Design the sequence.
């Protein structure tokens, strides 16, 4: 039954080197071995690096296809395998019914009655074993061992090669998936400015394809925002010269294909070949959104600071002006004193307004404010507001009128708060309107009343409409006001379970601030 | 006489400038916004331009950056005046020939700053 050994080795080698698919390798091996050693079950076991577990690939001649139990790890303890590995010598089991190894019992149930295990050695390390199983008792003998030991080294080498190759392939695949799916730009760039790697995400971010980077030396830097170019270049040179061992969070701007400026953050390390730095690798993250938020936050802080500090600064300067005007010999005293007086009064009021608004919004937001609910007549309330603000409106040549349906029902609400709400809306309308008309209109809807404060003033564009109810927001930071007024209005409406919004045809086309309040039913 | 251009949208602040510079050896032009400031700068060469930062329309810092972009106005000496602290304006320092005046300031501080600026131009 033994064919020429050389022939088998040749055929195994041929197959092994033509394929690096571990399934094919084992299948070939199984087919070829069957020509020389009879078995009903063949398994290849490979031990893990820590020598505690092993992985089995079972091949059986009964099955039409090789059955690979891949990736399952078994404990070494109690197995034939352990013995083979420990003593690095072949082991024969003549009768599995005796249960010498734990695995014998299992195999006996599968109809395997005798076994032969032969170690596979590679570079003086046992990497696993090849195990034969036969349905016949006392089947394997010394001659099988002798024959097999001659081809074992080749087999071991082939198996180890395949295994290594697959590991590398797996790692490479993982790496490739990371690069291909990463939202960040992953890159490698050589010292001469040539990219050796550029992840496809670069196209999503910059609009330019990875190929454009591969084909053009130094393409990356040329996309850099002009004012940032030098800084980025210097930092990269520092890495290439070895002056710096890494780059962390270098923020810079690029101009994308659509001409939009984006913010990127770069992290990078040198690529080394031995001790020589040959390039740079790293990734770029798109941080434009974060930058935008930062900017909003900064602007907000800037505006609030400005609003709080300006009146104080001007009062200080007014006091300085007063002191200088009282210096003996200064002839301008009389004219000055009323001017100083006015500046002081204005700015105290301005500060008072801010402080009051901040306190009001804090109270509302903390939710500790109790509503003093009573029956209120909106018609009466609106009339009151009009009589209070008529003069102010007149000073800016504005007409102030109301057109409420007479049958607007009495609602349950906190009178002071609703008064504040309407007053503020009208106040804003006057503030942003000159030589115009301000009307307070009303509508009765199924379960609520809707009030509108309409003006013919400067109006609001879309961006402003979206933000007016934010705390501290003002379209023009330098205009008088805390920017809290509408945030307070929104809060007041919300605690009354109503809605508030703004409509405007756009800049210069007037504004309509609208809110609703629920009409109370009998049960509340 | 040295000519000063002051771009300031706050009427009360304008009064302070007038009061402090009255009787000093300067020819003072006051304008209430950046657009008019730019117009003036185009008409005539000023020895110093004082810019408020937060103004309606074009802000002072924008106007300053705009000036520095044009070679003709690259050298115009600028003083930025604001209640904001120096940090907000620091990034403009790189654009050159600018100093910062924090509000509130008194007459001495203002004159001092102007003199320093004028001297550095020699
Ligand atoms: N009727 C209106 N027409 C045009 N713009 C308006 C109108 N009402 C409000 N706005 C815009 O909304 C911004 C915020 O208004 P809000 O009432 O919250 O603050 P403010 O009036 O600036 O200050 P204050 O808190 O002192 O009332 C205003 O600065 C303005 O830009
Ligand atoms: Mg307001």
Sequence:
């Amino acid at each position: 039954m033994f064919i020429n050994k050389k022939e088998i080795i040749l055929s195994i080698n041929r197959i092994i080197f033509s394929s690096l698919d571990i399934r094919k390798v084992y299948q070939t091996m199984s087919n070829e071995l069957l020509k020389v050693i009879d078995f009903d079950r063949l398994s290849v076991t490979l031990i893990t690096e820590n020598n505690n577990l092993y992985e089995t690939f079972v091949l059986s001649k009964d099955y039409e296809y090789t059955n690979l139990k891949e990736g399952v790890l078994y404990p070494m303890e109690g197995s034939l395998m352990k013995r083979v590995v420990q003593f690095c010598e072949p082991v024969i089991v003549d009768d599995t019914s005796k249960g010498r190894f734990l695995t014998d019992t299992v195999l006996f149930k599968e109809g395997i009655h005798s076994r032969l295990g032969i170690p596979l050695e590679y570079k003086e390390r046992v990497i696993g074993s090849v195990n034969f199983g036969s349905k016949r008792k006392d089947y394997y003998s010394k001659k099988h061992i002798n024959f097999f030991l001659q081809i074992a080294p080749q087999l071991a080498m082939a198996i180890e090669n395949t295994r290594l190759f697959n590991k590398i392939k797996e790692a490479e695949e993982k790496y490739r998936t990371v690069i291909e799916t990463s939202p960040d730009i992953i890159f490698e760039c050589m010292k001469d400015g040539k990219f050796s790697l550029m992840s496809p995400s670069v196209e999503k971010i910059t609009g330019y394809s990875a190929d454009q980077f591969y084909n053009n030396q130094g393409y990356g830097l040329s996309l850099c925002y002009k004012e940032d170019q030098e800084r980025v270049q210097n930092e990269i040179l520092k890495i290439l010269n070895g002056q710096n061992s890494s780059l962390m969070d270098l923020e810079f701007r690029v101009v994308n294909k659509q001409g939009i400026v984006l913010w990127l953050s770069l992290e990078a390390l040198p690529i080394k070949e031995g001790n020589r730095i040959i390039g740079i690798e790293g990734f770029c993250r798109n941080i434009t959104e974060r930058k935008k938020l930062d900017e909003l936050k900064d602007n907000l802080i800037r505006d609030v600071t400005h609003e709080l500090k300006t009146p104080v600064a001007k009062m200080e300067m007014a006091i300085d002006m007063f002191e200088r005007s009282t210096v003996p010999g200064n002839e301008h005293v009389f004219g000055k004193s009323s001017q100083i007086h006015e500046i002081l009064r204005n700015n105290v009021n301005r500060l008072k307004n801010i402080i009051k608004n901040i306190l009001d919004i804090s109270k509302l937001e903390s939710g500790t404010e109790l509503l003093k609910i009573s029956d209120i007549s909106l018609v009466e309330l609106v009339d009151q507001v009009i009589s209070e603000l008529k003069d102010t409106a007149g000073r800016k040549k504005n007409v102030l009128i109301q057109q409420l349906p007479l049958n607007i029902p009495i609602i349950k609400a906190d009178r002071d708060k609703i008064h504040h709400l309407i007053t503020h809306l009208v106040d804003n309308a006057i503030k942003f309107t000159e030589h115009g008309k301000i009307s307070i209109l009303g509508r009765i809807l199924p379960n609520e009343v809707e009030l509108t404060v309409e003006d013919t003033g400067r109006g609001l564009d879309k961006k402003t409409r979206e933000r007016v109810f934010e705390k501290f927001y003002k379209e023009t930071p330098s205009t008088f006001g805390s920017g809290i007024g509408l945030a307070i209005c929104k809060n007041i409406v919300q605690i009354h379970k109503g809605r508030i919004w703004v409509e405007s045809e756009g800049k210069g086309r007037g504004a309509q601030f609208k809110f609703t309040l629920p009409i109370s039913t009998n049960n509340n | 006489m040295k000519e000063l251009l002051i771009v300031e949208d706050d009427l009360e602040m304008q009064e302070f400038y007038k009061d402090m510079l009255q009787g000093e050896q300067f020819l003072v032009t006051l304008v209430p916004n950046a657009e008019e400031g730019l117009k003036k700068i185009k008409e005539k060469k000023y020895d110093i331009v004082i810019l408020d930062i937060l103004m309606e329309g074009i802000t002072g810092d924008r106007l300053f950056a705009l000036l520095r972009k044009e070679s003709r106005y690259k050298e115009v000496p600028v003083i930025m005046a604001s209640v904001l602290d120096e940090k907000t304006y620091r990034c403009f320092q790189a654009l050159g020939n600018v100093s910062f005046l924090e509000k509130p300031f008194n007459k001495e501080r203002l004159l001092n700053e102007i003199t320093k600026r004028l001297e550095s131009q020699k």
